[in-house]
C-alpha cells in the first residue's frame, strides 16, 4: 500500500473514532458519521480532544502524531489513540 493511501485510510478511520468520542461527550448530534471532519482541537469543560497533533516528549520520538489525544484535566488522564 502506498504511503498516501495508508494515510488516507488512517485519517478516515480516525475520523470515525473522533466522531464517536465527540458523540460520547454529548456534543455530536449528526447521524452521518461519514461527513465528520475533525477539527484539530475540541474543548468541552475539562476534556480536550486533539486531532492529529504532535506529542512532545523528553526524548526524541520519530512517530509522535497519534490520530486522537483525549485529555481529561479533572481525572488527570491522557488517552492516545492511533489507527
Q: Please, could you describe this protein's structure?
A:
This protein is an alpha+beta fold and 83 residues long. The chain is 27% helix and 23% strand. The protein is built from one helix and four strands, in the order H-E-E-E-E. It has one helix at 3-24, and strands at 41-44, 47-51, 68-72, 77-81. Strands 1-2-3-4 form a four-stranded antiparallel beta sheet, covered by helices on one side. Strand 1 (41-44) and strand 2 form a beta hairpin. The longest helix is centred in the first third of the chain and has 22 residues, at 3-24. It is flat. The chain starts with a helix and ends with a strand. The model has no long low-confidence stretch (mean pLDDT 84).
Give descriptors for this structure.
about 25% strand, single chain, about 80 residues, four-stranded antiparallel sheet, alpha+beta, flat, 1 helix
Uncertain spans: none
Mean model confidence by pLDDT: 84
Order of strands, main sheet, comes to 1-2-3-4
Largest sheet: 4 strands, antiparallel
State the shape: flat
Query: Based on helices, strands and strand pairing, what is the structural class?
Result: alpha+beta
Helix content range of the residues, please? 25-40%
Q: How many DSSP helices?
A: 1
Through-space gap between termini: 15 Å
Strand proportion, as a percent range, falls in 15-25%
- The helix/strand order is HEEEE
**Rg, please?**
14 Å
The total beta strand count reads: 4
Amino acid at each position: 500500500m502506498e504511503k498516501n493511501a495508508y494515510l488516507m485510510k488512517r485519517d478516515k478511520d480516525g475520523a470515525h473514532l473522533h466522531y464517536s468520542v465527540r458523540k460520547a461527550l454529548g456534543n455530536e448530534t449528526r447521524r452521518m458519521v461519514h461527513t465528520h471532519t475533525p477539527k484539530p482541537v475540541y474543548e468541552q469543560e475539562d476534556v480536550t480532544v486533539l486531532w492529529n497533533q504532535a506529542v512532545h516528549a523528553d526524548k526524541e520520538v520519530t512517530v509522535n502524531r497519534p490520530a486522537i489525544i483525549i485529555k481529561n484535566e479533572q481525572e488527570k488522564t491522557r488517552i492516545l489513540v492511533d489507527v
